[in-house]
Design a protein that fits this description.
Number of helices: 11
Strand content: 25-35%
Order of helices and strands: HEEHEHEHHHHHEEHEEEHEEEEEEEEH
Distance between the termini: 23 Å
CATH class of the largest domain: Alpha Beta
Oligomer: single chain
Shape: elongated
Strand order of the largest sheet: 14-16-17-12-11-15
Number of strands: 17
Helix content: 25-40%
Radius of gyration: 27 Å
Number of domains: 2
Structural class: alpha+beta
C-alpha cells in the first residue's frame, strides 16, 4: 500500500511540475493567439502583440515570416551584454578599447574615437538609447574578441531561446544577406530583456550624452519616440534601413501588465510608432493580467498524516499562476483542489500533496501543486507509544 502511495505521489509530482511550467509561461511561444486576425487595420506586413510574462499572444499578423529587422538586431547584442554583466564576467566600469573596425561603422553612431577607451556602461547606454553601431561592435569585440565570434554566440543564444526564424550575420543589423528575424522571434527576444532591470535604467532615458577624450561630447537621443510620447512606454528597440523599412519592438507597463508590440516593415517612421501605439492601447483597454493563485497562499484544507507528530498537515499553493484574460472574464474563474487521501510522516514543507486546478467555465486552464504548508516530523518515542496505546484502547484490541 505504501509503495502504491509513493508511486502515485511521484506521478502526481511530475504532472504538477509540467503543468506549473506551462502556467508560468516557460513553454515555447506556440500558443494560439487569443484573437483571430487583427482587430483593426495594420498596414505593416508583420506584427505581433504579446504579454511579456506569460508569452501569451493577443493577436498577430504574419508573425512567423522572416524579415530584415535592421537595428532591432541590437536587442540581442544588448541582451548578451546584460547577461555578461549579471553573471559578473564584465562590469560597467570596465574600459573598452575601440578598434578601427568598430569606429568605422556607418549608420547611427556615438562617433567613438578609434584607439580610445570608454566605460562599458557608457557604450551600453549609447546602444540602448541611440542605437549606436560603433558602440555595439565595440561591445561585441570586448565580450568575444571579434565581432564574428560574438555573432556566433548571438546565433547560439537565438537557438537556446527557440528563435526559429532568426539568423544573425552581424551585431548591428546593418544590411547583410541572410540576416533576418520574425515578429514572433523579436517579441520573444524582447521579453528576455525584461528579466534584466538594469536595462530600464538606460532605455527610459530620452536624452543623454557621451563624453570623448579631449572634451568632445556626443548627444544621445532615444530613437524610440514612444518613450516620451506614450505613457508607460519604457523600452526595446527601433530599426530602419531601405531593405527592412521601419521596425520597432515597443513595450509599456500599466497596472502590473507589460505588453510588447512588434511592427516590422512599416512604410514610414511615423507609421511604425502609430501602429505600435494603437496595438498597445488596444491591449491595455481590453485585457488584464490575473493571478488567481499565489505561491504560499493557504487553501483552508489539510491532509491526514499517518504516524506523525501531528495528525494533519495544511495545504497551500505550491506555485503562482498568471493568466492573460479579457477584462471581465476573470469572473468566470474557479479553483478545484485534488489532494491525496493521506501521507506518511515525516512531511517536509513544500512536499506535493496534490494539485490545484484553475478552471474557466469548468475547463482547466492551468494547475499548480498543492504543497505542505509546514513540516510534520515523526513523533518522539514516548509520544508514539502513547498514541499507539490510545488507538489500541479506542479500538478495544
Amino acid at each position: 500500500m505504501k509503495r502504491r502511495m509513493l508511486t502515485a505521489l511521484a506521478m502526481l509530482m511530475m504532472a504538477c511540475m509540467a503543468s506549473t511550467a506551462q502556467a508560468q509561461g516557460e513553454t515555447e511561444m506556440t500558443k494560439q493567439p487569443m484573437e483571430e486576425g487583427t482587430p483593426f487595420t495594420l498596414r505593416c506586413p508583420g506584427a505581433i502583440l504579446m504579454e511579456a510574462s506569460t508569452g501569451q499572444v493577443i493577436f498577430e499578423k504574419n508573425a512567423d515570416e522572416p524579415r530584415p529587422v535592421a537595428s532591432v538586431t541590437k536587442a540581442m547584442t544588448i541582451l548578451l551584454t546584460l547577461e555578461a554583466l549579471d553573471e559578473g564576467r564584465v562590469d560597467e566600469s570596465d574600459r573598452v578599447q575601440v578598434s578601427e573596425h568598430a569606429a568605422g561603422m556607418g549608420g547611427s553612431q556615438a562617433f567613438l574615437d578609434a584607439g580610445s577607451s570608454y566605460a562599458l556602461g557608457e557604450l551600453l547606454k549609447s546602444v540602448i538609447i541611440a542605437s549606436a553601431n560603433d558602440a555595439a561592435v565595440a561591445l561585441a569585440e570586448h565580450l568575444s574578441g571579434t565581432e564574428e565570434t560574438f555573432v556566433r554566440r548571438m546565433n547560439e543564444r537565438a537557438g537556446e531561446l527557440g528563435l526559429g526564424q532568426t539568423h544573425f550575420v552581424n551585431c548591428t543589423g546593418l544590411p547583410a544577406q541572410g540576416h533576418h528575424m520574425s515578429a514572433r522571434d523579436v517579441a520573444t527576444l524582447s521579453a528576455q530583456l525584461d528579466r534584466h532591470p538594469r536595462y530600464y535604467t538606460y532605455s527610459s532615458i530620452w536624452m543623454d550624452e557621451i563624453a570623448h577624450k579631449g572634451g568632445r561630447v556626443t548627444g544621445l537621443t532615444n530613437t524610440n519616440r514612444l518613450i516620451r510620447f506614450y505613457p508607460g512606454c519604457d523600452g526595446y528597440k527601433t530599426g530602419s534601413t531601405n531593405e527592412a523599412r521601419y521596425c520597432i519592438s515597443a513595450t509599456a507597463k500599466k497596472d502590473g501588465m507589460r505588453l510588447i508590440a512588434v511592427v516590422l516593415g512599416a512604410d514610414t517612421s511615423q507609421s511604425r510608432f502609430d501602429e505600435a501605439r494603437a496595438m498597445l492601447e488596444y491591449g491595455f483597454s481590453g485585457y488584464r493580467l490575473v493571478t488567481p493563485v499565489q505561491e504560499g497562499e493557504a487553501l483552508g484544507m489539510s491532509v491526514p498524516v499517518r504516524l506523525g507528530g501531528s495528525d494533519s498537515v495544511s495545504a497551500v499553493c505550491g506555485g503562482s499562476v498568471s493568466l492573460l484574460m479579457r477584462k471581465g472574464e476573470e469572473k468566470s474563474l474557479s479553483l478545484e483542489a485534488a489532494l491525496v487521501p493521506a501521507v506518511h510522516a515525516p512531511v517536509k514543507k513544500g512536499d506535493v500533496l496534490g494539485e490545484i486546478r484553475i478552471l474557466k467555465d469548468g475547463q482547466a486552464l492551468a494547475s499548480v501543486p498543492a504543497a505542505a504548508g509546514e513540516d510534520v516530523a515523526l513523533p518522539g518515542l514516548v509520544h508514539a507509544l502513547l498514541r499507539i496505546r490510545d488507538r489500541f484502547m479506542l479500538t478495544g484490541r
